[in-house]
From TrEMBL:
It is an enzyme of class 1 (oxidoreductase). Its EC number is 1.1.1.292. Residues 133-340 form the Gfo/Idh/MocA-like oxidoreductase C-terminal domain. The keyword Cell wall biogenesis/degradation does not apply. Pfam families: GFO_IDH_MocA (PF01408), GFO_IDH_MocA_C (PF02894). Residues 1-121 form the Gfo/Idh/MocA-like oxidoreductase N-terminal domain. Keywords: Oxidoreductase. This is 1,5-anhydro-D-fructose reductase. SUPFAM superfamilies: Glyceraldehyde-3-phosphate dehydrogenase-like, C-terminal domain, NAD(P)-binding Rossmann-fold domains. Belongs to the Gfo/Idh/MocA family. GO terms for molecular function: 1,5-anhydro-D-fructose reductase (1,5-anhydro-D-mannitol-forming) activity; nucleotide binding.
């Protein structure tokens, strides 16, 4: 399967490694920054992969079947629509878009063109998360009471100066949209997906050189009667502390932690189907960074979805739900009141000036 990558930034090594591991025919790599493009091509020995600074030219000449989009967030939807128009299946880095209208446009275009859209919420493929999900689907939790997502990370000024789009409303959003959306996706997915209302608060406590928030806190009421709590920040000193997901049910309690919810740390169920110490020992991955090991199985799933004409495990609708929840928190925080879902059109740019001093 012919494959191409658009964007050679911070997350691109995971996409390159996943493409290689799945033996895709790597035909093109693109970035408007030639220095970054050459650096990645050299680092990963992409000698036979043609290099482009214009993705339109790459799409026309290489005609890839699958394209991964790993640019700044504000360009995701525009590039995805161009790729879909060219007949390409797409893997879009999170978030899939920065507005609900753009997310809908991508989903609709893919349906009309008959191609697949996958959003790269790769933590769904963590072994720990897959174990929890299987247990949830088996009904071992009983009725779900509530869940919590904690993302306690550090991002310093150097992180933002490396790429001027970071922390802007037009191209990124803040901590919730960039750093926390993976765990927000997991929380919504695990707690029943359908949200009734959201109450949120956001603030900019320490990063006065960006436009968006560095702290977000939210209370979520799901349609099934369960609740969710989100706590996300990039203010932790002096380095990343944890990304943790708790699930509390009538008959089960689980805690997944580590750098990217890659370890099961608590496993308590009323039944005796498995031994907690064995589960904790088995599901204890230790990835080198917060991106985890999920890109390779995500790619394998997308390839299979294309070949067998089915929806990817993390499709466009799943990507939209994660985006919608973050936007709902932003909207609630800005308006100072609860927000009901589904949202009408909403976008990060709606919150320009929120933290202007």
């Amino acid at each position: 399967m012919k494959y191409a990558l658009i964007g050679c930034g911070r997350i691109s090594p995971n996409h390159i490694a996943a493409a290689k591991a799945n033996e895709l025919e790597f035909t093109g790599i693109c970035d408007i920054n030639e220095e970054m493009l050459l650096e990645k091509a050299s680092e990963f020995e992409l000698r036979d992969v043609l290099q482009y600074t214009d993705y339109h030219e790459m799409l026309e000449k290489e005609k890839p079947e699958l394209v991964a989009i790993a640019t700044e967030s504000g360009k995701h939807a525009e590039i995805a629509l161009d790729c879909i128009k060219a007949g390409c299946n797409v893997i879009i880095e999170k978030p899939m878009a920065l507005s609900l209208a753009d997310a809908d446009a991508v989903i609709q275009a893919a349906k009309e063109k008959g191609v697949k859209v996958c959003v790269s919420h790769q933590n769904r493929f963590n072994k720990s998360v897959q174990k929890i999900r299987k247990t949830l689907e088996e009904g071992r939790f009983g009725r779900m009471f509530y869940g919590t997502a904690h993302i306690r990370w550090c991002r310093n000024e150097n992180y933002y100066t490396q790429a001027k789009w970071r922390g802007t409303w037009e191209q990124d959003g803040g901590a919730l949209m960039n750093q926390c959306i993976h765990n927000i996706d997991l929380l919504r997915w695990m707690m029943g997906d359908e949200v009734d209302e959201v109450v949120g608060m956001t603030d900019q406590l320490n990063h006065f050189y960006i436009e968006a928030e560095d702290l977000g806190i939210a209370l979520i009421k799901f349609k099934n009667g369960a609740y969710g709590i989100v706590e996300g920040t990039t203010d932790i000193y002096p380095k990343n502390l944890e990304e943790t997901l708790y699930l509390f049910g009538e008959k089960g309690t689980v805690k997944a932690g580590g750098q990217s919810v890659n370890r099961i740390e608590e496993w308590r169920f009323a039944d005796t189907q498995d031994k907690p110490e064995e589960v904790i020992a088995e599901f204890a991955e230790n990835p080198p960074n917060v991106y985890g090991f999920g890109h390779t199985p995500l790619y394998a799933d997308v390839i299979d979805a294309i070949q067998n004409d089915r929806e990817p495990y993390v499709n466009g609708e799943a990507g939209k739900r994660a985006l919608e929840l973050v936007l709902a928190i932003y909207k609630s925080a800005a308006e100072g009141k609860a927000v009901r879902l589904p949202l009408e059109d909403c976008a990060t740019v709606d919150f320009r000036g929120r933290f202007d001093r």
